[in-house]
User: What shape does this take?
Amino acid sequence: MSATTDTQHLIQAVTGNQAVAMAMKQIDPDVVAAYPITPQTDVVQEFAEYVAAGSVKANFVTVESEHSAMSACIGSASAGARTMTATSSAGFALMWEMLYIAASMRCPIVMTTVNRALSGPINIHCDHSDSMGGRDSGWVQIYNEDAQEAYDATIMGFPIAEHADVRLPVMNMYDGFIISGAIGPLQALTDDEVKAFIGDAPTYPNLLNTDEPMTFGPFDGLHGFYFEHKIAQQRAMDRALNVIQGVYDRFAAVTGRQYNHLMTYCMEDADIAMVVANSAAGNARIVADQLRAEGVKAGVIKLRTFRPFPTAEYAKALANVKAVGVMDRADSFGGVGGPLYMELLSALYQYDIRAKTANFIYGLGGRDIFPQDVETGFRLLQAAAEGADLPKSRVYLNMKGA
Amino acid sequence: MATKLSPKEYVKRGDRLTGGHRLCAGCGASIVARNVLKGAKDHPVVVGAATGCLEVSTSLYPYTAWEDAYIHTAFENVAATVSGVEAAYQSLKKQGKIDKPFKFVAFGGDGGTYDIGIQSLSGALERGHDFVYVCYDNGAYMNTGFQRSGATPLGAWTTTTPTGKVQPGKPQQRKNLTQIAAAHNVPYVAQASIHDFRDLISKAEVAFDTEGPAVLVVLSTCPRGWRCDVAQSVNMARMMVQSCYWPLYEVIDGKYVINYDPKKRKIPVADWMKLQGRFSHLFKPESQHLVQELQDYVDREWERLKALASLPNPGATTE
Assistant: This one.
C-alpha cells in the first residue's frame, strides 16, 4: 500500500496504546477481561469507549485484578470465545500463576503487555522485566518496536494462537510510555481486511458443547501425565516457529510489511552486531549507520519472536560476526547476564559459533538510552573485532556517576 | 423463598456427580455438589471448582466424576474463572451462536472462599454475573491437612493452630462470609447444611433461577479434620444447626428470612463439640472458658440474625 495514493490506508498519528485499542476494535473479540494499569491504561480506556459507543460486540469484563483478568480469560477461552486482555508490570506479575495455566490449558488468548519495570522501588516507566519474567510460562512472545508493529502484531495474534498446530496464548510487547504514550505513524488495515485476515475463530473443544461435556483443568496425580503435557507444550512451541513465519508472510502479502523472527539491519557483511528488542532498536540502527559511514561494518538484529526462540536463525545471522553485543532492558540478578544475553549465548554455543560477546544492560526503570550510549557499546565491539577482549561482566549504559 | 422439594420429586432428579470419586467416607462436599446440581433441573451446567478436596477427588485425570462440563484453573479464582465462562456464554448467546439455557456454578471450600478467594468472589458478585457460588464450608483447609481458615471456629485444633502450653487451638472467632456476601446486595444469599438436603436443593433451585449472582454457604462435615465418627457426619451438621451455630437462613433481595428456629430445642454448642476431637482439649478445666466464649458468640450472632430477620422488607414501601 502506498500511503500517498491509498485513501483507505492513510497514515494516522496515534499513540501505541491507541493503535492497539484500534486493532482490538477491528478484531472485535467475544470477550475482553482486563484491569487498568499504567502504562497500559489507555488500551483499556479506549476499548471501554468502543464498548460504550456500541461499536464492538465484545463482552467487556471489568475485573477487580489482573489475576482475575487472566482467570476470566481462561474461563472465556475455554468456553470457545475469542478472548483478549492487556496488562503491564505489576499486573503482569499478579497474573503470573495464571499465565502458566492459560498456556497449559492451551487457551488461544491474545494479550498486549506494555513493558514497564517491576517494583521496587515502584517505577512506572519502561523496562522489560515484566514480560521477561514470563518467558518460561508457555506463551508465544513477540516484541514490537513501534505503534505500527504493535498494531500489526495484535492483528496477527489470533491466526497464530488459534492455529491447530499451535493453540497457545500469544503476548505482544511494546515499550511503556516511549511507544504506548508517544504519538507515532500508523497505517491501519480496513475493518474488512482485518476480518478477512483473521477469519472466523476455529471450533475447538469447549465448555459450552452439550453434546460432549468436557473436563478442563483436571487434577494430574502423582502417576499422571503432567510430564507428557509439558512435552506437548514444547512441541507446540516448536511448530509455532513455522506457523508464525507463515502468518508474517501472509500479512506481508496483504500489507507489504514483511516481518521475520528477527529483523536484520546491515547484517550481510557485518563484523560487529548489536542485538536489541523494542524501541531502542531505532537508536541502534542510527549508530550502525554512523559507524558504517566511518567504514566500520556494524549491523543490528532486532529481536521480534522471543518465544519460541529462533535459535537457528540467530546462528545463521551471526555466523560470520566477530563480536556481538546484546542489549538487555531487564536483568537476571545473579545470572550469567540479562535474559536475552543468556538466550543468545546458548544459541551461539549450540551452533558452534564462538564470536566475542558482551552484555549491555540499559534503560532499567525508563532510564534514557541515547545514541551515544549505544555507541559506547558498539565501540567496545569494534575494539573486540580488532583483537581486544570484551568484559565478562555486565556493561551498564547511561548509568549515573559512570 | 425456597420451598422444599417433595421426596417424590427428589428421587426423580438424577445425580450429575457420579460415584467413584475419591472423596473420603462421610465427606460433606459430595453431598453438597450432588444436591446443588439437582437444583439446576434440566439445564445444562458448567461447573467450576476451586482447588480443594472436591476438585482433586472428582477430576483425577484421565477420569472425571462430573456429568457436566467442568473447569478448574487454580485455588483463589473460581469465581473469576466462572465469570469468564459466563461472560463468554453471554457474548456468544447475544451473537446468536449458542441457544442452550446454560447455568453456571462455582464450588469452593472455605479456604478458597473465606480467605484466598474472597477478592475474586467479591469482584464477581459486584459485577453481577449470572452464576451460583457455592461454598462447602468445613471450617479449615482440609485438603492440605487441616490448617486453620477464616471459617475455623474459636478454640478448634488445626495443624496451624495446634494445642500447646500457651495456645489452646484457634485464638480467633470465625468470620461471617454469608453476611459478607449479603453486603454485596446480590439478589440471593443463603445458608444451608448437608443434613437437610431438601432445603439445600430448594435453595439451589432458587439460586439457579435467580437472575444475577447467588451465593450458597453450606455447612459440610469433614470427619477427618473434625476428628469425628464418619457415621455421625450428617448428624454432626444437624446438631450444629440445632445449636444455632449454623442457622439456616436466606437473604432475598436484602430481606433476611430464617428457615429454621429450634426454639426450645436449641442445644448447647458443647453437645457437638464433645463429639469432635478437634475440641477435646477444651474440655479440660483450664480451657473450659473457651467453650463458654464460643457459646456466647453463637448466642449473640443468633440474636443478631433474628433482629435482622425482624426488619421490614427493604423492598417494601414504608408506611
Notes: Chain B touches chain A through 47 residues (CB under 8 Å). Chain B has one domain: 7-309.
